[in-house]
Amino acid sequence: MKEMTFTEHLEELRKTLIRVVLILGVAFMVCYGFGEYISEFLLKPLRDVLKATESGQIVYLGLLDKVMSQLQVAFWTSLIVSSPFWFIEVWRFIKPGLHSYEIKAIKPFLFIGFIFFCLGICFGYFLVFPLTFETLMGFGVEHVKATISLKEYLVLSSKVLVFLGLVFQLPNILLILGFMGIVTKYSLRSMRRYVYVGFAVLSAFLTPPDPYTLLALWFPLVLLFEFGILIVALIVHPYLARQHGP
To answer: Of 25, 83, 118, 159, whose CB has the highest number of CB atoms within 10 Å?
Structure first.
């Protein structure tokens, strides 16, 4: 563990933020160049449901809507495609505050963290989106057509995918907190009921008023939390016991 003063921590944080901003800037320019294809990719789940149900159409309401939506989609997409690089920068900032044995234990899980980030995005795109759109299109009165704003949909869908990618980092976060001694398998198990309720509230907030869609989001969150407890019990506790043992 490298001892650093408060000023040195602030300086290192400043450098890290500058590098992250540069990474995002380059990724943004690349994503903006492919903005049309990214937008088509995001629109596909909604278009499939609208085509199957014949329940509406996607429109843009202002002259600048296409431009603004592509700019915002490029920003949120840049967070996704550049995630391996800013993951590394975050790791470099955290690394000096860890012991050598903690670094050896956590380092392999950086790659796993990226895999979980991608899984969260795939989960949202292939499962949450179709279920949510089908539920919303079939909810309420029938024989009415939906007019969906292109800008609002693209921005919302991009944010949701990034959010789910971050949510799927839960096992990694618990792992790191375990190595830092902030949580243990016992403390995580004791807060299980509160976490479940929190996930239910979060799922209800993010999904339409439909129990099946709510459970489709709540259940994976619970599995991620339980997986986090499992790796803390199977990896963190034995590893720390060996390091601090006689």
So the answer is: 83
